[in-house]
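In the laboratory, one determines a bound structure by crystallizing the protein with its ligand and collecting diffraction data. In a computational setting the workflow is compressed into a single prediction: the sequence and the ligand go in, and a structural description comes out. We illustrate the idea with zinc ion.
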Amino acid sequence: MQSITHCPVCQTQFVVTEQQLNQHSGTVRCGYCLDVFNAIEQLVNTEVHSEHHHPTSEFNALIAPDLIKPDLSEALVTEVLVTEDPITQELTTEVQTIEVQAGQHDYLAAQAMPTSATKKSPVLLWILLIVMLLMMVVQSIFFLRHQISLYYPNIKPSLVLACEKIGCSIDLPKKIELILIDDSDIQEDAEHTGVMRLSTTLINQAGFYQAYPNLELTLTDVDDKPKLRRIFKPIEYLPAKTNIAFGLAAGAAVKVNVAMTTQGIAVTGYRVFVSY
Ligand SMILES: [Zn+2]
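The predicted complex, in structure-token form:
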């Protein structure tokens, strides 16, 4: 069954089949003015059409080969030549035009897809921008981690843990003059002969976390001359569970116990220092 539709822009009329109307939900492109319209919505009342709106001239406008793509025009012209009945000839050509135009519309729709992707690109741009900002923040934290941990001791444990995961460390302040050695005492070990045991307390007098210092123990003879000297690193003098990377908190004190063999040398005194 064939119906007649018309272009709402240039009013050109077209013969369309039911199949064509069903394709693309009736969307077609006018072969004359190239306007895209819905052929179903623009259907012409056939009674009115037969009485008043069937001038041949309207169809002729549509057949004009120069309105059709060059590669298709040849086929269409051939069709025109072999068809004898002018009305049939016109109708056939129009149907083909409709098909061609419907096909073109498909093509245009396919072309329109990248446009919708372009619309999304600002969102991608924002995501990219946010990711870049986050990376900058993380990078800043990384490079300023020493200062941040100094001024914001509350977030320091998180920084230390994060740093341990990526293999970096947080440098702690090393102001040795603010580390106080208090309550030092040395005794010969009750169970092991020739072993001297030092107990002392290290106090961080700074208003911030500090790195644990090295402890230097010197054993002296009766003339106060150094006979034996050993430097203990924090890992050697601190309890095993101590997290050395956290450092010694502001105002905190830590009890230290170290042992040292006299190797048969008679020692009568000692000196203890801290250093970094
Ligand atoms: Zn038109």
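Residues 86-143 form the longest helix (58 residues). Keep in mind that any predicted model is a hypothesis to be tested, not a measurement.
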